[in-house]
Design brief:
CATH topology of the largest domain: GMP Synthetase, Chain A, domain 3
Strand order of the largest sheet: 1-3-2
Structural class: alpha+beta
Number of strands: 9
Radius of gyration: 21 Å
Distance between the termini: 39 Å
Strand content: 15-25%
Helix content: 40-55%
Largest sheet: 3 strands, antiparallel
Number of helices: 12
Shape: flat
Length: about 280
């Protein structure tokens, strides 16, 4: 067994495969520490794994364990994304609770597909292949709809599928008060998270950018209340708005407990209070 440390899980898996002289698919890994980008450059953590080569220990593994560690031969579409699934699935939990927005609100397409310059070149190639698979499948899906949509672009960055859709019927695809947008966003998340372990950022025309700006303006007094009293909560928010508010407030208050709550009648809102008190209480 070998202990490996690297800035990302992808790099740790690659380094382990080189040290053990076996392919990534033959690695048996235990994630000791998930990587974290930190906040504004602080509290950054490397990925740490304990790795061994599956081929070296195959005789010592029970039949039940072998069944758990092997999967069926993937389909043609799934094989393109298999390396992504193997290397980033353990980052999903960490990203669900500590994600920061990667978009600049004053741009739609350019910022929507902006990639961090520090990303590993090999990772970009694999992500690009996965993005092309998703893009082609999404184009096929929308081709059967009644909406006039002529732009469908997908990029995969940092375990998230960034999807941009536009066309003559973009407003119709959004729907009144965003109800179609919410339904499509939920459908895409159910598909991509189940199949590829990806999160989703969906932009239709400028809808998401507009909603982000609106929420940024709305939460200003909420932020002021938190700064004065240490806690606050938003009003009831629908669909994508509650997720946008959650992300923005987590970025603003990384050391506090920020979470979505549901009222007795099913309405959702975001609460902010002391993280340590919540955990200990």
């Amino acid at each position: 067994m070998t202990k490996v440390e690297a800035p990302t899980l992808e790099e740790a898996y690659k380094k382990a495969s080189q040290m053990l002289e076996c392919s990534i698919s033959d690695l048996q890994c235990e994630v000791v520490q998930h990587p974290s980008k930190g906040i504004f450059g602080f509290l950054k953590k490397n990925a740490i794994i304990i790795a061994s080569c599956e081929q070296d220990s195959k005789q010592d593994v029970s039949t039940a364990t072998e069944k758990d560690n092997f999967i069926d031969v993937p389909t043609k579409e799934e094989s393109v994304a298999s390396e992504i699934i193997d290397t980033v699935k353990n980052e999903a939990i960490d990203k669900e609770t500590h994600r920061a927005s990667t978009f600049e609100e004053d741009a739609v397409m350019d910022s929507f597909f902006e990639i961090n310059e520090d990303e590993v070149e090999e990772e970009q190639v694999v992500y690009s292949e996965l993005a092309l698979v998703i893009e082609n499948q999404l184009k096929e899906l929308l081709s059967h709809s009644c909406f006039d949509i002529d732009i469908v672009e997908v990029d995969v960055v940092d375990n998230t599928a960034l999807i941009f859709i536009d066309g003559a019927d973009a407003a119709l695809l959004i729907g009144k008060e965003g109800y179609r947008y919410n339904a499509l966003s939920y459908m895409l998340f159910s598909w991509l998270h189940t199949k590829y372990e990806l999160f989703v950022k969906l932009e239709i025309a400028e809808f998401l950018t507009t909603q982000q700006k609106m929420i940024a303006s709305y939460i200003e007094p909420v932020i002021e209340t938190v700064e004065n009293t240490g806690r606050a909560k938003t009003r009831f928010l629908d669909g994508i708005l509650v997720q946008i508010a959650l992300e923005q407030l987590r970025v603003r208050f990384p050391d506090k407990y920020v979470a979505v709550k549901t009222s007795k009648d099913g309405k959702k809102f975001v609460v902010i209070n002391e993280f340590n008190k919540k955990i200990n209480g």
